[in-house]
Amino acid sequence: MTYRTLLVHAQPLDAAKPRLAVAAALARDLGARLDALSAEVEPSLGVADPYGMLQAEWFSVMQTELERRFELSRALFAEAADGLEGEWRGVRDLPTRALAGAARACDLIVAGGAPLDDNDLYTAVDTAELVVRSGRPVLVAPPAGGQLRGKAVVVAWKDSREARRAVADALPLLQRADQVVVYEICGRDDAEGAAFRTEEVAAHLLRHGVKARAKVRAGADDRVCDELNIEAEAIDADLIVSGAYGHHRLNEWVFGGVTRGLLRRPERFVLLSH
């Protein structure tokens, strides 16, 4: 199992360059194809225009600006992906929806590599929503980017469908690692059960050629992200693998605390699956 096609969100911003660099470096390392999607839509005029004159002028200006932004996005991607197989596409659509749809033809989406608190739904991707809508693993790069070494990895274990999906989706990276820690933060009364679960997961990974071991620590739910990063720091891991927990309610996505924490404070690479 390996990743044959990566997909990255391309934007005409200097802040997006680290994301493109991460995606390109990983594609080269894996011998994979790298595709890029730029997706934006024009915001509404937001004022009353009974005769349509302002609307027509606004639309023309925004079309010109959108074409300029697409060309810049294409150029930035071409520079980062020089020598790689793949293609760039620009579409007029909401970015999160467009990336989730384009995921049908990829194995892994590369996101992040820029501030994750940009709430402009016309130009920016909601990374958490992308994870749950795309049906593909999403590799979230820290804001400054960097190259994913993946020599040591922490798997954030929770006995859930999402965690199982994340472990399966991450196998191509886990099999390349020198050490993988399957780590569960549990309640004090559940240490024995957590030890059994993590040992089973580690044994399963060993059968797939992954150098995995289990670890359990008692801790409160609001300490999970901190404990994961402490363990990652201790073993010099630059990747955390985790399930993404969220559901749709009242026309918005609601996400669990660990998912929000890993996305809000990405101290290292995070691979999320739903």
Explain this structure to me?
By secondary structure, this protein is of the alpha/beta class. It has 8 helices and 12 strands. The strands form 2 sheets. It has a 10-stranded mixed beta sheet with strand order 3-2-1-4-5-12-9-6-7-8, sandwiched between helices. The longest helix is centred in the N-terminal third of the chain and has 28 residues, at 53-80. The chain is globular, with a radius of gyration of 20 Å. The mean pLDDT is 90.
Structural shape: globular
Radius of gyration: 20 Å
Arithmetic mean pLDDT: 90
The proportion of residues in beta strands is: 15-25%
Give the H and E element order: EHEHEHEHEEHEHEHEEEHE
- SS-based structural class? alpha/beta
Please mark out the parts with pLDDT under 50 across 5 or more consecutive residues, or reply none.
none
Number of helices, counting only DSSP H or I runs of 4 residues or more: 8
> How many strand units?
12
Main sheet record: 10 strands, mixed
Tell me roughly what share of residues is in helical segments. Answer: 25-40%
Keywords:
8 helices; 274 residues; alpha/beta; two-stranded antiparallel ribbon; single chain; 10-stranded mixed sheet
Show the helix and strand layout:
Blueprint: E1 5-9, H1 17-30, E2 33-40, H2 53-80, E3 88-92, H3 95-102, E4 108-112, H4 127-134, E5 138-141, E6 152-156, H5 161-174, E7 179-186, H6 191-207, E8 212-218, H7 224-234, E9 239-243, E10 246-249, E11 252-255, H8 257-264, E12 269-273
Parallel strand pairs: 1-2, 1-4, 2-3, 4-5, 6-7, 6-9, 7-8, 9-12
Antiparallel strand pairs: 5-12, 10-11
